[in-house]
Design goal:
Elements (H helix, E strand, L loop, with lengths): L12 H33 L7 H9 L10 H13 L1 E11 L4 H17 L2 H15 L1 E9 L7 E7 L4 E3 L13 E8 L1 H8 L1 H10 L2 E2 L22 H5 L8 E19 L6 E3 L5 H9 L3 E15 L4 E6 L7 E5 L1 E3 L2 E3 L1 H27 L3 E2 L10 H7 L17 E2 L9 H14 L4 H4 L8 H11 L4 H25 L4 E8 L6 E8 L1 E3 L4 E3 L6 E10 L1 H17 L6 H6 L6 H10 L6 H41 L3 H11 L35 H4 L16
Antiparallel strand pairs: 1-20, 2-3, 2-11, 4-5, 5-7, 6-7, 7-8, 7-9, 9-10, 12-13, 14-15, 16-17, 18-19
Length: 699
Amino acid sequence: MNITSPITGTGDDAARENWARYEYGKNRGHLEYMPHAARCEDMYLGGGRQWTPEARAQLAMERRPAYEFNEIKPSINSAIGYQIHNRMDIAFKPRGGDADLNTATILSKVAMQVADLCNLHWHETQVFSDGLIQQRGYFELRMNFDRNIQGEIEISNRDPMDVIPDPDSKSYDPDEWGDVIVTRWLTLGEIEQLYGKKARDTAAESNDAGVDFGDMDDEPERSKFAAGNRSGWLDAHAKKDDGLERYRIIDRQRFIYELTPCIVWPTTGDIQVEAVMAQDSIADALGNGAVRARRMQRRVKWTVTTFTATLHDTYSPYEHFTIVPYFAYFRRGKTAGMVDDAMGPQEALNKAMSQFVHIVNTSANSGWITEQNSITNMDSGELEKRGAQTGLHIEVKDIAKRPQKIQPNQIPAGVDRFIDRVDKALKDVTVPDAMRGSAGPEISGVAIQSKQFASQQQLAVPLDNLAYTRHLLARRILKLIQRYYDSYRIFRITETDAMSGKPKEERVEINSFDPFTGSYVNDVTVGTYDVVITEQPMQVTFQNSQFQQALEMLKAGAPIPPAILIRYSNLADKEEILASIEGNKPPADPTVDARVRLIDAQTRKTDTQSTDIAVKTQYSSVQTAQVIAQTPATAALADGLLRSAGAVDHDAAPIVPQTSGDMQPVALPQNTDPLTPASPARGQEAGIETLAPDGVRAD
């Protein structure tokens, strides 16, 4: 029975407000969600959990079996397998302000480094599984200062049953929620670690300790290693001295709007709340032209309480909630998972199969019809127990009738078809057989892969929502990098060289001050960037596909080097093999280099000859043009000579321009003897090499 009247706290104002909001969120849908989510998880896990305790007790009373044929788990695992084999690749591109492509590349590398350090892929698998099974999954993103005084980004996941989103919201994006509550049971040590020594003392003085069994407010028990509470064990052992004492923590984050001191950059228009900036960052911003201003800003108020005591109540250092949701199916505030629609077919399958097995079992010992006291070697009770035993021997009296076996009930017609129908319906609402890769040996691998690709359309909505969640998470990672990674840091990133396939280490420095220019190199704190999320196949699967493609290209005749095939293989010692190939290269053939030099020399010779011919042709053309300009009457003769030599007119006819009709020909010298030229001045210049245009008179 759900609680209909909220419990009223007796503590301070913040604790009472937090508890009232917690009760409001529970009674507005969370209490109905939790038992359904627990039921969906049992249906996925199986192992006897698919039958409710009431149904199992009824079957036991009727002496009927309770069989489970779990078809949900392989279907959900196939969908989860797709996510496992496709990792998230985060990249950024410049959008405005002082953003540039080089800084965007640096930010992308830092974000992927953060994702690797936080084991983001494994957390994403858990969140994706929660969304498919229990409708909802949640990331939690915050800063951690335990291992690094400058702070490191930490990504974790939360139990969906512990997170209460704004019940009055209908948006996927938590930026459009009014608040979000995370409830947990923490020990005093955990409270001190998260909120400080003062919060621990406050919690200890509140006497709000309890145990996480859900008994306090009619909630279903959370999934944990424990197997439940045995009668009397709670009162005897849940003592403070045993270290089992825990406090229910109500962790609430909510948006508020108020007039807030800000730092404004007039050149770019960027605005940042002054309270979340370091003092040196504020001084640097003011020195670079930023100004102080008071503006209405949306901020996150973070309040953490127990039932009666406030442990933490201040502004959040983050611009967003630390919770990032994933919903497999989302329709304006209503969520659903893949298991929801599979529960009915799975229960019908279990009942049909159990009934089928029950009928088969009862047919082996359907009963006997005997006369009273007609059997001599056993009584009726013994016959009832041993009636279906192999090699049974029955002795009857001489005058008695033989015992008659009762004919068993026949299996109802259509039960097998009903089972097939239910099995098909279960796969229709989850994933088909093709996506599981289950097919006979007569089907080729290419056909199986084609069917798997086509069947992924059934996962289009959950995968599209996963891409949206990835986008929200990447935007928040970017905000944390730009706000908290504001000092000089060094990242050592190991990548695989695209050419050699060997691992290489790259040293990335951010926020490095250059004393010569007075500016920061790779300053990741400025500029605005767009988020680009892509899927990258898991390394093993990607390499397998690349190896197969390279092998097919090699068979088709493409010149694929052996080193490429080795690099894309899964050999354990492929790096050593590549090194040995490079170390054992045969000496270069000297004739190859000689042939290359010969061809190069012949090419240069041909180029030189072509240039020589072109120069001579140009010289002749210039000389001809000078003669025609001086003696236009020779144009017709030159045109005829060119045609007789086979010249082709590439412009307009005639090739050589003709003289006008009113021009008179110039009388040429009659004496052509070079020893006695018509003009002594011309005679000294006549010969093979001339210092003036040939045939041009210089009167």
